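Collaborator request, handled under Task 6.
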Amino acid sequence: MIALAPQAALATGVLGTLSLGLLRRPPALALRAIAFTAVAAAMLLSAWAPAETWSSLILTVDPKSVGWQYLIYLGALPLALWIDGEDDVLTALFLGSTLGMSLLASARNLPMLFIALEFMSLPAYLLVARSRPGPRGLEAALKYFFAGGTAGALFMLGLSFYYADTRVLAGATTLNSLGQAGAALMSAAALFKLGAFPLHWWLPDVYEAASPEVSGFLSTAMKSAAVLFLMRLCELAPEARFIAYLPAIGAVTALVGSVMALRQERLQRLFAYSSISNAGLLILGVGAWAAAGRSADGVGSLLFFLGAYAFMSNGTFGFLKHAGVETREQLKGLGKSMPVAAAAFTILLFSLGGIPPTGGFMAKLLLLWRAVDANLFWPVVLAAVSALISLSYYLGMTRDLWFERPHGPESAPGRGAPLVIACAVGIVLLGAAPWLMEAVVK
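Structure tokens returned to the collaborator:
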């Protein structure tokens, strides 16, 4: 089926990687080529998906699912470039998780939504552990596993309540108390995956313990899939009362993430809380989309935000990998020792802070504008306050880069500067010409 060709390309990549792993010493270049080719082929094949909707009993491919697949592959492509090819299992886990996200984008009913959720999550737990071997990586992977297991249990319990009330697996028009409870439990699973307050306790430890490039993958591709997961629940349970609480949950999450980031000195932990804050904005956007009657404009603003965030987050974590820095203290003076990469990192920080004319500014403006259109005034105020708070640490890191003296010996830069620069160029283009995302939005 042409409609499922992207998933077939990723599955072929998994099988090819495991086949090479049978060799005593799998060629590193071949493994890296398979990872990149599989993700790039899936992205290209998505463009050839049929314009009309294709459906089966469990999967459906329509313009919205294709657009979401683009975002997932966009978030995954940098990790495909970063993989060093020394670990065939890590490469297979990465491609398997991406395949699960791709299936999630096309899930037609609640059981398939759960299967795809587990398909993308189970490889991700091991991906965290193998990306940075050691006690910290194992501890973070266990926390991630228990958080994901809790989310899966909540979803299955909610699904049983939902089915007991409605006797259908998708799109019930009326829900009684049992069905409402089931829908609320399933939404809690989606909020777990997004790291919404107060279900965010696992995320900072996982992002800090994983390697920077894997943290970038989790914060972009995985976040895109989690947002789609939440939107699918809103579509499959349109009468659920939990939908009305999403704007408040999103606004509080954005504020908590920004405030907690103020205290952080370790960079990956700081960007983890930044990711939580941005997840709050996305939850607010989903709530605004649902409150406005699930309009196409609301979907467009979410897609644009996630597309911009794929550049911003992958670029910032990529810079940490390239520069070999772990704390804010180590950022001092890098503007002089690696000026081009530091300039690209500065652009990404400005974009994360929502400073015009970057793509991050346009993304936040579009999303909050849709929330205002839906009359969600006080959640928008809280989200705006969180954005102002975040400027303190984004601008503070900029000061560290350019106006502070180096502290200690300089770290030797690694590979990856072209990727950081490409992300900075991409976010500038999105700010200057937001219509570049129009094809994906449609």
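The cover message to the collaborator said: "The mean pLDDT is 85. The radius of gyration is 21 Å. Please let us know whether this matches your experimental observations."
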